[in-house]
Amino acid sequence: MLQSMYSGISGLQNHQTKLDVIGDNIANVNTHGFKKGRFTFQDMMSQQMQGATAPDGDQGGTNPTQVGLGTQTGSIDTLHTQGAMQPTSRELDLAIEGDGFFRVLNPDGGETYTRAGNFSRDSEGDLVTADGHYVLSDGGEMINIAEEASNFSIGSDGTVTQVIDGEPEEAGTIGLATFANPEGLESLGGNLYGETSNSGAANELAPGDDGAGVIAPGMLEMSNVDLSEEFVEMISGQRGLQANTRIITTSDEVLQEIMNLK
Q1: How many CB atoms sit inside 10 A of residue 194's CB?
Q2: What's the pTM?
Q3: Using an 8 Å Cβ cutoff, are 46 and 68 in contact?
Q4: Mind listing the pLDDT tens digit for each residue in 186-204?
Q5: Principal place where this protein is found (predicted)?
Q6: Alpha carbon distance 70, 248 (integer Å)
């Protein structure tokens, strides 16, 4: 069989994966706190037909003769660049300007992390995510805004201040977590990320401490997906897929000619 057919198949499969990544980016263009993916290619190992030779006397050196065997997935990266800020004027909508993630308590007792700050209060006054997971303070405790509080506010340093009987009182400080390698985090769905062995351990901080971002109250961070860029990548991926399909078709025609030899 012609090797070009197998090379074309590998190109077809990997361009399909590239389009899958682009499709996910476009689908999440309006998902708060979403971080886009990026697909990269790598060439596969090459078939060595002749090795390189060094110059010897009156004979010069020669380069290796190799035939590539197609392409493979290089990486699917998550790009944690800052998304645009959307003003909402809602006191429990929070965005992070800079590095870091909100700390979220899972029902199993573990922690996950998110950039989506569309929070609310439950019936007991605890600060929760849209899915009901507790938002944690810089000390790892739940943040409770008392029912009798007449007013409350959240500062850029994450401090939650409530007013009870006319007196201001601190209810806690929004906790953030930073990572040595945020691209190593695992996407868990529901706008949540989980720690992995390559993300590094979470550095638990208050906003503004040791390089962590600050809180922008009354704002939400939008997806960092650029639609114009995604459409260009989609066209490039589509053309690459069509070109590899053409390789397979041409290889098949060559095989047909060989079969017709008499």
Answers
A1: 14
A2: 0.88
A3: yes
A4: 999 999 999 999 999 999 9
A5: other
A6: 12
